[in-house]
């Protein structure tokens, strides 16, 4: 094996999607590639190869892709000429990953191109983790895993530390670490990346970004939808594995990381790893005190009746949690004593992902006879659905007759501040894969450090006779999640606060 060197946009690319007829490919990956092609960002000599067990020829697969783009791309962004160009790039290969006799089809297509040695080959594993090992081994056997190849793995990588190591070992036997891209689409969102710029390109904020001035940090990823048709998978996973181990811990890392020497390919990942290694390990007693798990019952979401988790599963034997709230601490010089509160859940009262940095109250009351009072400054970083930032301040209300204090906010909405559409996270991340830029992807040691921290929680929950606490659909989660903060004299920050 040889290590690939990150570079500028290559002249040629074969983008192969295993699971090419699946939901991820048709709903996210193909639309992202279309939009990058629309803006002229794909290499001119690009082929998109969908691999599946379906009996489809190229024309039939192109019809499926055309229908998917019509459904998942806004009509005003669908250009007939670009669509035709993209579809000419699209091919389908019928292949059973576990059948050695099928692989000659993909081998022939990949090798049958001009300038094979100069082309980048991306292999996107939009399939179950059990297929990662056999797919990678077959790719090596047919001779397409040289320096020009890259492999992309969707989260979660494994279901615990041992399985994550097993998967990483299997893929690592074929590909160098520099060729492996573990994708977490949250890291491709504009607001998440802008967090680094906000912290490190503005001198007024970074000196306050520490335990002397920050009271606590809240990270929320809430969904109004239930498990839908993913119930079978979700009941084997649960919210801790599905969301906390990757999405929320990655957001925590970006908030808490030290300034790197520069924002580059490995420097950011080095600093994120240090945060994961500095997380205070949770004992069984800590898990009981500092974590809450819940499961949604029937309720109302946006005024519409919503079924319970058991009803969505179709049986009452579900075992997974659909909600998690927990208290974490980063044990280093910068953050000692500052709690990080994380929560995520399904069937909640709103769909949102946000980071709230709550600063400490002013140390002295300067306006004793004023109406109203000062409130803690807060920086809200809105990840979705409306990407932006809000800085909450205390100001004097205009008018004579004394000082009246009231909270106000300085708002930055990316939609209105910049006269251009923000690319979808997958658009950005897929182009980073093609270019060979790993900055926004998880390194093996990051993944395993995250599992090392999460695993004691899973173990303690498995040993506990307590069941997840019920909460009605359309609410902000179990009452115990509010009590997690209230015992510290704090409350969850909601959008209307």
Automatic annotation (TrEMBL):
Catalytic reactions on record: D-glucose 6-phosphate + NADP(+) = 6-phospho-D-glucono-1,5-lactone + NADPH + H(+)
Gene Ontology CC annotation, any one: cytosol
MF terms in GO: glucose-6-phosphate dehydrogenase activity; NADP binding
Residues the record lists as binding substrate: 185, 189, 223, 242, 346
Residues in the signal sequence: none
Binding-site residues, NADP(+): 53, 155
Keywords of this entry: Carbohydrate metabolism, Glucose metabolism, NADP, Oxidoreductase
InterPro entries (alphabetical): G6P_DH, G6P_DH_AS, G6P_DH_C, G6P_DH_NAD-bd, NAD(P)-bd_dom_sf
E.C. designation(s): 1.1.1.49
Active site, UniProt feature: 247
Domain of life: Bacteria
GO BP terms, alphabetized: glucose metabolic process; pentose-phosphate shunt, oxidative branch
Domain Glucose-6-phosphate dehydrogenase NAD-binding: 17-194
Entry coiled-coil feature ranges: none
Domain spans labelled Glucose-6-phosphate dehydrogenase C-terminal: 196-493
Pathway(s) annotated for this protein in UniProt: Carbohydrate degradation; pentose phosphate pathway; D-ribulose 5-phosphate from D-glucose 6-phosphate (oxidative stage): step 1/3
SUPFAM superfamilies assigned: Glyceraldehyde-3-phosphate dehydrogenase-like, C-terminal domain (SSF55347), NAD(P)-binding Rossmann-fold domains (SSF51735)
Claim: Oxidoreductase is one of the keywords in the record: yes
Broad EC category: oxidoreductase
Family of the protein in this entry: Belongs to the glucose-6-phosphate dehydrogenase family.
Function description: Catalyzes the oxidation of glucose 6-phosphate to 6-phosphogluconolactone.
Protein name: Glucose-6-phosphate 1-dehydrogenase
Annotated organism of origin: Nocardioides donggukensis
